[in-house]
Amino acid sequence: MNDKKDFPARKPNRLTKFDYSKNGAYFITICAKDKKCILSNIAGQIKSYTTNKYGMILWQRSYYDHIIRDEDDYINTCEYINNNALKW
């Protein structure tokens, strides 16, 4: 059995002392394993659904999330999403 010390340290996925149960806007990215272009329209629980459907791991571990803090942050995030899609 492996000890936790055998695994590389990963950054925490959650903002310390933030109440995630509150209503709010969140920006979350998910990446396909080996950055394969397999996504078109994204539905809820896509990572779980597709992994179960294909019977193999399709996703990179971890993810990036960002709490939208105000209107400017929301606009900047929307611009990032629109511009990032153009790169593909």
Mean pLDDT: 76
Rounded to an integer in angstroms, the radius of gyration calculated over CA atoms is 16 Å
How many helical stretches?
A: 2
**What spatial order of strands do you see in the largest sheet?**
1-2
What is the H-and-E element order? EHEH
* Beginning-to-end CA distance, first to last residue: 41 Å
- Helix content, binned percent: 25-40%
Class from helix and strand fractions: alpha+beta
What amount of the residues lies in strands?
A: 5-15%
- What sort of overall outline do the alpha carbons produce when their principal axes are compared? globular
Note poorly predicted spans. none
List the helices and strands and how they pair.
Layout: E1 26-29, H1 46-54, E2 64-67, H2 71-87
Structural description of this entry:
By secondary structure, the chain is an alpha+beta fold. It has 2 helices and 2 strands, in the order E-H-E-H. The chain has helices at 46-54, 71-87, and strands spanning 26-29, 64-67. A two-stranded antiparallel ribbon has the order 1-2. The mean pLDDT is 76.
List keywords for this structure.
88 residues, alpha+beta, two-stranded antiparallel sheet, 2 helices
In brief:
The chain has 88 residues and is an alpha+beta fold.
